[in-house]
Design goal:
18 helices, N-(1-d-carboxylethyl)-l-norvaline Dehydrogenase, domain 2, single chain, 438 residues, Rossmann fold, six-stranded parallel beta sheet, alpha/beta, 14 strands
Length: 438
C-alpha cells in the first residue's frame, strides 16, 4: 500500500514510521520545512524511545520518505492519513479543526482516483462528515471514502502501542474502504489484534470516551489519595486492593500531581464542549477537568505547607518537568503550574529533567537548569519530584543527603519508599501515604 501521512508531528511521525515497518510505502508530509529538513538529516523533532532507529531503518529500506509537497504525496497514495494538530481553541475549549479542514481542502485538490482519506488526528464527532463534504464539494466526480482511525498511543511507549495494540478502531461506511484499511493493518492479524469496525461517528466518540475514562480514573485515585492523607491510609494499598478487581483493573491508578500532556487535557475539554453543544452534557467529565486543574495548582501549596507555610528564600531542587516520563513533552505539564507558583512565593528553582529541559526553558522563566539530579540537589533546601523518570528511582539517597543543605523531600510521584528515606534521615512527604506516628 502507498500511504501519505499529512502532518509529521508526534502522531504522524510515529504512525508513518510504523506503517513503513509493516512494509508499506509511506511519505510523511509537513508544511514545516525546517522539521522536514531535520528528518531528512536523521534528526528527530520529538523524543520517543526507539523512534530514531525505526525511522532510520525504514528510510534506509526505501519505505519511508519525507517532503513538503502534499500534492505529490497524495496523488500517488492509496490512503491518505490526516495527522495534523487539533489544539484547544481559545475561548471555548473546543478542538481547533482549522488544520484538519485545511488539509482536507488540499487533499481535494490533489486526488484524481479512488483514495481513502483517514482522520488519524483526534477530532470531535462530526469531523469526518465535514471532511467528506469539503472533498466532495471540490471533487464531485472523483471516487473516495472517508474513514476514522483514532490513535491510542502513549507517549514514551508509542511504538509498542502501535505495533502491539490492544485494538484498532476503524470507522468506515463502505466495503471498499474497509478492505483498504484491513489491508493496511493486515500485519497485525498475525498477533490476532482485535479490529473494531464501526461507523465514522462511533470511532470518533470512542477516542474521546477512552481518554475521558482514563482521565477520570487518574482523578479518582488522586482524590482517594487526599482522603488517605487525612485518615492515615496508604493509597498504594488501596489502589492494589481495588485494582485486583477485574472490573476495575490496576492501570491508571497511580496518584500524582494531576494529568497533563497533549491528549487528556484537550480531549476532555473537547468532549465536554461537543456534548454541551448537542444537549448531552458530560457532567462527570466536566468535574474531572475542574478537579484536575485545581489539583495541579494545589500541589505548590502542598510544598509550601510542608516547608512550614513559607518557601521565601528556599532553594527547591525539582526533579522532572515533563508531563510524564520518557517524553520531552511539556504540554499542560503539572510543573507549569507548580514551578511558577513556588517562584511567586519566593522560592529559587533549580531543575533537572533527562529530556525536557530544552522544551521547559521555552515555557518557564527564572529556572536554573542543572546537568544532573545530583547537581540540582546541591545546596538545596528541598527536593521536589514532579515527574517519575526511572533514573530518579536509582538515585543514591546517601549522596543526595550529602549534597543537600536540608534533607527534605516532597515526592509527588511516590517513587521513593517513605520508611527507607526517613531511615536515611530525610523529612519525607509523598502523595496519599500515611505520615509517621509520633
Amino acid at each position: 500500500m502507498r500511504i501519505a501521512m499529512i502532518g509529521s508531528g508526534y502522531v504522524g511521525l510515529v504512525s508513518g514510521a510504523c506503517f513503513a515497518q509493516f512494509g508499506h510505502d509511506v511519505v510523511c508530509v509537513d508544511k514545516d520545512a525546517d522539521k522536514i529538513a531535520r528528518l531528512l538529516r536523521g534528526e528527530m523533532p520529538i523524543y520517543e524511545p526507539g523512534l530514531d532507529k525505526l525511522v532510520a531503518d525504514n528510510v534506509r529500506a526505501g519505505r519511508l520518505a519525507f517532503g513538503t509537497s502534499l500534492g505529490d504525496a497524495v496523488g500517488a497514495a492509496d490512503a491518505v492519513f490526516i495527522a495534523v494538530g487539533t489544539p484547544t481553541r481559545r475561548g471555548d475549549g473546543h478542538a481547533d479543526l482549522s488544520y484538519v479542514y485545511a488539509a482536507a481542502a488540499e487533499i481535494a485538490d490533489a486526488i484524481s482516483r479512488y483514495t481513502v482519506i483517514v482522520t488519524k488526528s483526534t477530532v470531535p464527532v462530526g469531523t469526518g462528515r465535514e471532511v467528506a463534504r469539503i472533498i466532495r464539494e471540490a471533487q464531485p466526480a472523483t471516487e473516495f471514502d472517508v474513514a476514522s482511525n483514532p490513535e491510542f498511543l502513549r507517549e514514551g511507549a508509542a511504538i509498542e502501542d502501535f505495533m502491539k495494540p490492544d485494538r484498532v478502531v476503524i470507522g468506515v461506511e463502505s466495503q471498499r474502504a474497509r478492505d483498504v484499511m484491513a489491508a493496511i493493518y493486515r500485519p497485525l492479524n498475525l498477533i490476532q489484534t482485535p479490529m473494531v469496525f464501526t461507523n465514522i461517528e462511533t470511532a470518533e466518540v470512542t477516542k474521546y470516551a477512552g481518554n475521558a475514562f482514563l482521565a477520570t480514573k487518574i482523578t479518582f485515585i488522586n482524590e482517594i489519595a487526599d482522603l488517605c492523607e487525612k485518615v492515615g491510609a496508604d493509597v498504594h494499598d488501596v489502589a492494589r486492593g481495588i485494582g485486583l478487581d477485574g472490573r476495575i483493573g490496576r492501570k491508571f491508578l497511580h496518584p500524582g500531581p494531576g494529568f497533563g500532556g497533549s491528549c487528556f487535557p484537550k480531549d476532555t475539554l473537547a468532549l465536554a464542549y461537543t456534548a454541551r453543544e448537542v444537549g448531552a452534557p458530560q457532567t462527570i467529565v466536566e468535574q474531572v477537568i475542574d478537579v484536575n486543574n485545581m489539583r495541579k495548582k494545589r500541589m505548590a501549596q502542598k510544598v509550601i505547607n510542608f516547608c512550614g507555610g513559607s518557601v521565601a528564600g528556599v532553594t527547591v531542587a525539582v526533579l522532572g518537568l515533563t508531563f510524564k516520563a520518557n517524553t520531552d513533552d511539556m504540554r499542560d505539564a503539572p510543573s507549569l503550574d507548580i514551578v511558577p507558583a513556588l517562584q511567586a512565593a519566593g522560592a529559587k528553582i533549580v531543575a533537572f529533567d533527562p529530556e525536557g529541559m530544552e522544551e521547559a526553558a521555552r515555557a518557564l522563566s527564572g529556572v536554573t537548569f542543572a546537568k544532573t539530579a545530583y547537581d540540582a540537589a546541591s545546596d538545596a533546601d528541598l527536593l521536589l519530584v514532579i515527574t517519575e523518570w526511572h533514573e530518579f528511582r536509582g538515585l543514591d539517597p546517601r549522596r543526595i543527603k550529602e549534597v543537600m543543605r536540608q534533607p527534605r523531600i516532597v515526592d509527588l510521584r511516590n517513587i521513593f519508599d517513605p520508611d527507607e528515606m526517613r531511615g536515611f534521615g530525610f523529612t519525607y512527604e509523598g502523595i496519599g501515604r500515611p505520615k509517621p506516628r509520633t
